[in-house]
Every structure is written in C-alpha cells, then in structure tokens.
Amino acid sequence: MATIYDVAREAGVSAATVSRVLNGARTVDPAMVARVLTAVRELGYRPNAVARNLRRSRTTLWAVIISDIGNPFFTATVRGIEDVAQQAGYSVVLCNSDEDPAKEETYVAAALSEQMAGVIISSSGSVKAAKTLLESPVPVVAIDRELPRGEVDTVVVDNEAGARTATEHLLTAGYRRIACITGPEGVSTADLRLRGYAGALPSEPLVVRTDFREQGGYDAMSSLLSSSDRPDAVFVANNLMAVGALRCLADRGVDVPGEMGLVGFDEIPWADLVRPTLTTVAQPTYELGRMAARLLVDRIATPAAKPAKVVLPAELRPRQSSAR
Amino acid sequence: MATIYDVAREAGVSAATVSRVLNGARTVDPAMVARVLTAVRELGYRPNAVARNLRRSRTTLWAVIISDIGNPFFTATVRGIEDVAQQAGYSVVLCNSDEDPAKEETYVAAALSEQMAGVIISSSGSVKAAKTLLESPVPVVAIDRELPRGEVDTVVVDNEAGARTATEHLLTAGYRRIACITGPEGVSTADLRLRGYAGALPSEPLVVRTDFREQGGYDAMSSLLSSSDRPDAVFVANNLMAVGALRCLADRGVDVPGEMGLVGFDEIPWADLVRPTLTTVAQPTYELGRMAARLLVDRIATPAAKPAKVVLPAELRPRQSSAR
DNA sequence: TTGAAAGCGCTAACAT
DNA sequence: ATGTTAGCGCTTTCAA
C-alpha cells in the first residue's frame, strides 16, 4: 500500500503538506492541493487510519454492544444511533454479545484496546464488563438496560410503569390469576418489569424467571400450564419470550385470549399478522437510539458533566391476545 | 492511560520483556512473568491495539457489511460468522449499509482505512464499493449476493433453483397466473430469483421490481391487485417483501390462499405464527455464515488461491399461503 | 505557506 | 533470557 511519503514524493512536496491537504487545511496553495490530489488518485492512496488514530490518540469509531442481534428491538435502536453518529462524524460498529457475559467482556476489552471514541451498551448483565468500562476513560452510554452499579448516561423506557399498565390492562379485561414470565435477575429490564407487574397485582405474584429468549418463554409457559396453580393470563417481560409463550399455547391448543390472556413487553415485527394478534407494550426504539447517541456526543465533548438519565415512555398496544 | 513503558518501569524490566509476557512468549523467566503481571494489574494496564496494529501492519478485526440489519435473515448468518471468527482469533464488527450504496461505500472505505483483516459483504449493489474492495489487498468474501463483477470467494444459495421450485409449487397447487415481485436490478438475488421464476413459467412472466423492503412488497402487491391482468398467485423474492405483500392482502380482504397464493423467498422468524402461515423457500443461514467465515480464514492464509464459489441448497417449506 | 523532525505505543530484529 | 533500538504511517509543533 502506498504511504503518505509515496504521495509526497510523487507530488514533489513534503508529507506534512499531503497531510494538510487531506485534512482540509486552508493554508495550502491551490496549486499544491491540485498536485497532491493528482498524486493521491494516481497511486490509489488511502490514508492508514490505524496510524492516524495512533498519532491523534483518538478514533472516530463507536462500539455499540447489543445483547442480542436476533431481537428486532435493536434494529430500530441501531438505526437511531447510526443516524446521529453519522451526522456527528462517527462510524458505528456493532458488537453482538448474544446475552453472553463472557462475549460482552471480550467486546468491551476490544473496544477499549481499539481506543474507540465511545461505547453504547445494552448490558447482558456482566458486572465485570460494567466495571471495566466505568474504570476506563472511554465515554459510555447505557441503553435499554441500566449498567450494573453504573453512574453513567442512561436511556431507558419506563419499564415499571409499562409493566404496571400491562398488568392493569389484564385485570381490567377480567383476568384474575395473572402470572409473570421475566428475565434473569440483575438485568434491570427484567427486575423493573417484574416490579411493575407485582405492584399492580392485588394478589400474590406468580413468577417464572428464564432467559430473554424465545425458547425460554416457551418453557416457562409450559411449566405454568402444568402447575397446580395455573394462571388465566400472563404478562411476559420481553418480545421473544412472548412469542415463545404464544407458540407453546398454540402447540398445546390453549385458546388465546379465551383460556389464557397474554401481553408482551416490546413490539415484535409482525405483531398484527400473528394470530391471535399480540398485545404489547411498545417502546420508542428509534428515539431511544437517537437519544443515546446524542448523549454520547455530549459526553465526548464534556467528559466531566453530570451523567444524565433519560426515561422515555412506553405505550400499551392492545390487540387480540388480551381481549377476553 | 498507562503505556507499556510504565509497566516496564514498575516491574523493573524492559518494554520488550513486557511485550513478550503479554504475547505469551515462552522464553521469559517465570519470575519476570510474575513481576510483569503484577505491574499490569496494579496499573490497570491495557495494551493499545491501535499501536499494536500499526506496528504489526495487521489487525484481528473483520468487517461484516450487511445490507439490512432489519432483515432477520442476517441474524443467523452473523451468528455463523461470529462462531467461526472467534475460534480463529478474530473479532467481528457489523456494519449496516441499510441497502444504501453510499453507506456501503463509506463502510468499505472505513474497513480499508482501518486495515481490517478481512471483509464479508452482502452487497447492496454499489459497483464502486465492489471495485474499491477488489482493487484493495484486503481479503473479501461475498455472501448472499454476488459482488458486482467480482472474482472473489462467494457463498450463496441456489437462488435460481429455489425460485423455480417455488414457482413450480404454485403451478402444481393449481394457480394459473403467477406474478413475481423481485428486488432491484443488479442485485444478484433479485435477478437470479426472477430468472428461476421465469424459467419455470409456461406463460408470459408478470414482474414488479421494487426494493427489498416490506413497504416495497406492500406497494407492489397493491399495484398487482389493481392491474387489469390480476394474478392469482405471487412469488415474492424476499422475506420482508413477502410480509408486506401479505399485509396488503390482509388490508384488502383478499383471501389467501383461496383468491391469491403466496410464496416468499427467505424464512421469516415466525412464519408459522402469522395467519395464514407463510410458505417460504428457506435458506441455511447459519451454515451460510459459517462457510463464508471459513473461506475468509483460508483466504487470509492463502491470498493467492483461486476464488471459491459455494452454492448451498435452498429448501421449500410449504405452508398455508400456497395451499389451494 | 511549506518542510524538518519528533513521537504516538507497540513489536521484532538484533545484540548481548 | 533480556535489553537496545528502529520503525510501523501519520500529524503537529516548530522553524524558516
């Protein structure tokens, strides 16, 4: 690969001048600019970002560490992040931790080693990854899920209120024994949605914890169906588990919403095309991403500012699965 | 941030020794290893990958440039890539071109500037991006879609055969006037699936081209419904457009599969939960990702080897939407 | 306005 | 087995 010195020689100028031209300094003679650009084109020169980053001690890359690329929730969120990032001159690289704390730690370590300009993370619960990030100088924004013990910029939805609304909706519809399927302890969305559910319930809570995956939801629903204290409705704390639960009910021939009501948290892509259509608590995903990116831009500009916490509203979308 | 020299000073050794310890050289005295590791821990030292990459003139990052992060097709594919990459000592960063050639070009440029160790790309059709990649020394594997005019390692499914099978399936089911909704010209999947469809058809083809998005499928179906030559079945060349088409039919109250048969190419996540369930041509997505990653590993090891082209089979999954 | 030169942090010859 | 040293490619003072 051609280096900046090759270009300099070809154009008959110094490397410093080439650098100035390429970085848009206005103190360069137009004639030289032309010569440099010609040389760049002829040699097919492409600046080595690694060298530049080393010299500048900074990069223009953001790492966005998401917990499950298979969850459509992240699609719109990432788009929101990308749109703001691009405008601010950053490129976004996505890292998929796949709900695996070990992978999350690997990606956090990589982001720091690679001197990324910032990190946006939806924690899969690794305390170690969170600690590493917090002790590092890299600007961090937590999204969707709070960072364990983290005093950092955070963008979440009002999980507790959303869960409460969903549970009250089931009560209003006439369901009496409402269970909750939620995610792993220590993941803030799992815990807060559980709290919202429990708070809305006049009776004793009935809780199953599992992972945030479709299979987890299936298994959880399966165990609820065969329990002695079988519920007549379930609030499911994320979208993929809700789909799993729905599939389980279909497989078992349980009538939804007649025999069993169902509300999920998080939209699923074709919530209105599945049968029965799925009642969900929808989140402003795109806006979540935009907001996180804006916070990160601000944080990079002002590292010492007090961390912000933004809570966006979630909204119930009543559909068939809860309409008794 | 602490540098390798800080660690060296703290441990009372040279920077070279620290480097050796950190890179697992076995020619280091165990006592020194211990001292170095202690110093590393005390200082919270973290190697600067940018400096390392510059010095080594290589990185351990792969760029995976996908054309639409919102398409669930890529979920399993990316997982396949990641699993192989991790085993081979590479980290994967995802870049979402969002079917936008300009974004694709930006990400290709970034991947080259950042000296990424390799690129796996699902082209959104930018000839310029393809050219840039092919003229660069970076190892490239095309996945899902062929790279425009690219003599590179390629992993695709047998699009033509899959489309033919789908079309024949509709004919066998008794549909007579079968249309095709496909993607942009120049995108290999769009063109090959169209060819497979046309090849299987005894009559004149009826084709609508649009983008590969849900809205595109909706609009295309809408125009087919109001055309004078209204079809009784449609083969839709990707998953998102199939969902759009299905939604359009639902909105218009057209009975599927009675009034209109439908087959999509690519699975959708809950094909069996939507109503009617959607007949699709399924692809071995995870295997596609694994294969691409394996080719990339080989290519990095043997840059001069002849490019391979791997064609994996696609498989019809008959469901309700085509069962007249 | 331009060039010379130093140095970002690391690794790998080479020397000891 | 360990240290010395040069240099990866770039940017940015500093001097002219």
Automatic annotation (TrEMBL), chains A, B:
Recorded coiled-coil stretches: none
InterPro entries in alphabetical order: HTH_LacI, LacI/GalR-like_sensor, Lambda_DNA-bd_dom_sf, Peripla_BP_I
Keywords of this entry: DNA-binding, Repressor, Transcription, Transcription regulation
Keyword Transcription regulation: yes
Domain HTH lacI-type as annotated: residue spans: 2-56
Pfam families: LacI, Peripla_BP_3
Record-linked PANTHER family: HTH-TYPE TRANSCRIPTIONAL REPRESSOR PURR-RELATED (PTHR30146:SF148), LACI-RELATED TRANSCRIPTIONAL REPRESSOR (PTHR30146)
Protein name: LacI family transcriptional regulator
Origin species: Nonomuraea polychroma
Taxonomic placement: Bacteria, Bacillati, Actinomycetota, Actinomycetes, Streptosporangiales
